[in-house]
Hints:
GO biological process, one term (chains A, B, C, D, E, F): fatty acid beta-oxidation
Strand content of chain A: 15-25%
Catalytic activity (chains A, B, C, D, E, F): (S)-methylmalonyl-CoA + H(+) = propanoyl-CoA + CO2; (2S)-ethylmalonyl-CoA + H(+) = butanoyl-CoA + CO2; (2R)-ethylmalonyl-CoA + H(+) = butanoyl-CoA + CO2
Family (chains A, B, C, D, E, F): Belongs to the enoyl-CoA hydratase/isomerase family.
EC number (chains A, B, C, D, E, F): 4.1.1.94
Oligomer: homohexamer
Protein name (chains A, B, C, D, E, F): Ethylmalonyl-CoA decarboxylase
CATH class of chain A: Alpha Beta
Amino acid sequence: MSDDVLLYLDQNNQTAIVTLNRPEKRNAISLKLIEQLDQIIDQLHRDQQTKLVMITGSSPAFCAGGDLNDFHGDIGQEEAHHLLKKMQNVLWKITTLPMPTIGWMNGLARGGGMELASACDFRFVNETGTYGFTQGQLAISTGWGGGTLLYERIHPQEAYYWLVNADVRSAVQLKEIGFAQGVFSSEQLEFNHPLIEPYIKRSYEQLRHWKSQWLTNQDLQMLKIRMDKEVEACSHMWVSREHKEAVANFFKRNEK
Amino acid sequence: MSDDVLLYLDQNNQTAIVTLNRPEKRNAISLKLIEQLDQIIDQLHRDQQTKLVMITGSSPAFCAGGDLNDFHGDIGQEEAHHLLKKMQNVLWKITTLPMPTIGWMNGLARGGGMELASACDFRFVNETGTYGFTQGQLAISTGWGGGTLLYERIHPQEAYYWLVNADVRSAVQLKEIGFAQGVFSSEQLEFNHPLIEPYIKRSYEQLRHWKSQWLTNQDLQMLKIRMDKEVEACSHMWVSREHKEAVANFFKRNEK
Amino acid sequence: MSDDVLLYLDQNNQTAIVTLNRPEKRNAISLKLIEQLDQIIDQLHRDQQTKLVMITGSSPAFCAGGDLNDFHGDIGQEEAHHLLKKMQNVLWKITTLPMPTIGWMNGLARGGGMELASACDFRFVNETGTYGFTQGQLAISTGWGGGTLLYERIHPQEAYYWLVNADVRSAVQLKEIGFAQGVFSSEQLEFNHPLIEPYIKRSYEQLRHWKSQWLTNQDLQMLKIRMDKEVEACSHMWVSREHKEAVANFFKRNEK
Amino acid sequence: MSDDVLLYLDQNNQTAIVTLNRPEKRNAISLKLIEQLDQIIDQLHRDQQTKLVMITGSSPAFCAGGDLNDFHGDIGQEEAHHLLKKMQNVLWKITTLPMPTIGWMNGLARGGGMELASACDFRFVNETGTYGFTQGQLAISTGWGGGTLLYERIHPQEAYYWLVNADVRSAVQLKEIGFAQGVFSSEQLEFNHPLIEPYIKRSYEQLRHWKSQWLTNQDLQMLKIRMDKEVEACSHMWVSREHKEAVANFFKRNEK
Amino acid sequence: MSDDVLLYLDQNNQTAIVTLNRPEKRNAISLKLIEQLDQIIDQLHRDQQTKLVMITGSSPAFCAGGDLNDFHGDIGQEEAHHLLKKMQNVLWKITTLPMPTIGWMNGLARGGGMELASACDFRFVNETGTYGFTQGQLAISTGWGGGTLLYERIHPQEAYYWLVNADVRSAVQLKEIGFAQGVFSSEQLEFNHPLIEPYIKRSYEQLRHWKSQWLTNQDLQMLKIRMDKEVEACSHMWVSREHKEAVANFFKRNEK
Amino acid sequence: MSDDVLLYLDQNNQTAIVTLNRPEKRNAISLKLIEQLDQIIDQLHRDQQTKLVMITGSSPAFCAGGDLNDFHGDIGQEEAHHLLKKMQNVLWKITTLPMPTIGWMNGLARGGGMELASACDFRFVNETGTYGFTQGQLAISTGWGGGTLLYERIHPQEAYYWLVNADVRSAVQLKEIGFAQGVFSSEQLEFNHPLIEPYIKRSYEQLRHWKSQWLTNQDLQMLKIRMDKEVEACSHMWVSREHKEAVANFFKRNEK
């Protein structure tokens, strides 16, 4: 059975590596993938050995966003809400994992792929990648709670600005606004990489403490409420005329 | 009748342009102007067509602050409180408008002009302008709630530092600390300007959602309480010996 | 009697200068020093003349952290909690002083020295110094509440990242992330120094207002709770095997 | 033109009396009534003479709830949301009026009538009336935000209990749980009535202060969010099979 | 295998009945019981059929508190913290179950038994039972977070008062202070009992909504922090001389 | 030297008894008394032996409120603010004492005397006394923050109602609304009194924990802000025409 998400537990480094594994689809997030990811994250919530979680994609892309075969333009509002809620639930669980999480963004990310990255505590980005909260271009908003999470990762003013502009940015730009903590050149992930090494050296207890300190610094209950509002707003826009037109145009452009 | 504030509703772009129109006074904010601005903002609160509001000034200045003919040094504490409250009320209404707001800072801003700009969601600044929260130089503080708003727009540490230093800064410096989201060269405002175009392209529903998300991210009740405290503190300093001396010195310097 | 902390009240400038005075120990914080500092801060809480407090060290260092003679590796958890609590108490009192406070970081700071600096409102740093939250290298965390305070001084994302990395940084890096508001070259502190002058010029009432505005912007009750959690977590890690090993290695390295 | 809501401004006592005036419909709340009530409350928000607002009904009932001709069982979810939102908006405005408000409950109240009463600061009840949050019996919940408001008026535990039980209670029971502040026998409202007299005697400034103190004691932003969630939940249940059946049964029972 | 906790899923009424089943020990909470209860609550969190959960005991007692064989006086602070944390975790999960929960208190409750009852949304009590937060008599405090929960169930003033007094109360007294919502005479639980019937009649969606409204009304993040503090305080008092003496006296009294 | 406030430290029971000692003035609170009380409370904040503080008055009255010789009708707004602030400061310190505090209300209390009682954690009242927040009758409001504290002691709805009504109530009524925890007949205070005995029996550590739990349950920062607003509102009403008339009438009535 081929899996759409791979989990590798590196016991030597007490690190879990979660890999989105649909490289031919640029790791687009299908309903099947969501289910598998959900189970893996549940397992990590119960895990008492792992001190670090890394989320990455099968190269060359990190994640192209929601798979349009599942999240397509014709579903109704109720159904859209139902589907968006599923992945919101996963992002919430990633956000509240008891150990630090790193989004190792090995390449391109768009839309929902950026939301997934925003659910991680830290983000390291490939210097050759391009990255964009492009939902705005399709007449919708972020829909899994990732826009809300972006507000926690960078200054709210910057988050609001990016979501409206919906533009694609470079690795260096991501570091400048604080979305990425580090930039790497396109080699393999190694645990002695200068960006990863400090995490590997810290103890289990240290890393759990720092994660707890990070979570306590946030108002998690309000965060959840705001993520809920985002899902509702997005499912509402899903059935708008503007969204349907934007999707049609998107396919027309891609056909040529 | 010539108006001190102009409202232009561009129905094509569903954009309202509010222009401070006392160019000979560098758009200083008089009591009469406050009243007109108040009515225009009330109208925009009820507006269900407009998706974007821009606030700007009749060139060359954006806004020189409070008009010293109305906000002069001899008024008592009770009276100062009463006058400051009027404009605080307008800044509060601008802050809570249901659509995104852009401060299109076409030129110089000082004191209260910066407070007005801080009430907008975004700020784009003319590269040749100079900008300063200069209230501190006159032995008072911001007095319309704009210092409190500054705390929401840039990192609180930066806000506190600027208010104490009370220095004048360039357009580039404003972008560096995140107060301005973009810098433009001194041409006319056009809706296909790269800074404005994304807003025009987004739908009414998208923009209202993002504004709502931005507001929900803030603790508005506490924001209002902090703005109230600012008005009280400023009206208290208004009648201090230090303020009276600073105003006298200011006029002496300007006479020469 | 020679004092480990000096208090100089400059009545001309209404400024209090608090100097850590154990230059031969790089101003390491002993229990005796804590007691003296505590009394001085209590005095400043009652002070109704002073408009500015500066905290600095007897050159060349600012503060090397906790004195290992008092905060050594062999004490038990209960005792560690008791000792850490003492200095946490002082940092809390510094944080809530009614006037602005400046950490004038005349040179090197490590570990607890950085926590002390984080309790100040502003930090100006010597361009030749090096600065690091290095607690993480010793298998513990910050333990006086200073990690929690760091979350308030720079973006939480940056704070979390620095605490995990536990690396040493330059003056310029501190300014880039907003931890330092200014960098000075290694001359004497003078009140007409461009970094200090604005503070000296402002009135007593202005400075107290701005400090109050700064404090009201924070959730102080939650801040205290988070500082308490930090003390507990650190005293828990204090007795871990990893900490004892790290301390042993530290001494081995330093012996050579 | 006969009005569905009457406004009487008693200038002697600086009191506004708002009367629901559809006695033949037991003052059921129709869309037309909502519109008139909305305008009256807007007027009272701007009023700077009135120190007290009383809301009552044309006898014998206080208010039977939403008028089933407008809020009927066949409307869809989107439409239900739209209609419920209208009255939620009015309840929010009543809640935040700047002067004390008294619900003078001259007789029976059910469902939405109780929600309206909950938006008032105080409630005085006719000893012969019966009162019930009976929405639960119809397989829905409160839908105008009034359930949320009930949580603020009595202990949350009691509110939760009443909403689930959906039972009808007597005047004395209302006083026991603190929902009513006083009980009157079924005579005319007079300003020298012992329950009203103290309000009439207090000054404008006193009453506005106490109202402000009452509002500041609540977290209004969170209150609004919770009211929004209530509207959404109710409009969702509106289209449930259980609701349609309950409505059908209700009419069947009433026919007999 | 005989179970210490029984789970009965009544599919007709969509109700789960959880029964503490150590009648010979007055249903005292042992470590083994905690483990079984934990698993059952986990199952109910995932359950999407059940609309109501009832927690009760095998008669005649509801629950005598922690089993002194496991929670005995000689364990150290670290160990006490570890054991208390286990049951706190279960109480937290009960508190946040997605459906309403009823503590059907069939008889006597003391100490930890009261904490368990406090984790339920509602409490109905046997008129012949006696009930007490008696922890205070043993020189400790509540230790599973139940004291914190009591603050949410009755007025904080009453909670504080009861915890200090540590007295035993009757069913009627419990109803007076609002801890119990209803009193029943000592017959069997039946679903057509007037206290239970309304819950059974409501729909799944209604009950989930009301539970969600109840939870949203609380600050769950702060609730968790306060529960954590309680566990720490209690484990600290566990090793005090006063506690050891009180336990010794308790056994002496019971021997006679 | 005869003192206006007596402090008796009962070392046997580890209890401090603070007695207002101006029986001929019904223990009215003068500026001199405030100063003495302030010093005593400061001492109790540092005290590490005392486990309980009781505040009472020299019989027959508990406290008649502010002494009109100091808090008289002719002082200006600024001065009123200054004087009110002094006692607010003391009430705040009492509220945040680290050990439980009991207001042993040996007799009549009015106005500011009720505010003082509200700053205590618990209140026991003499069955023959009468008690009233009567400030409203003098066209002002509570002015030391005691109205705000009342909101924490009883249900906010009840607090709002009492402050507007400004009526005098009996001991039994106080117990009914939860303002008093117990009623005693007019005998001497004894430590084996059933109301006091439980406190005396509990350990130092228990009582400090329960007090801490009580304080953590409140939002102290917001409490302080609300108390500040109360002082400002009251000092504003102090100079109103209505207040001056009410004071004049008060003296006229008392002359006869």
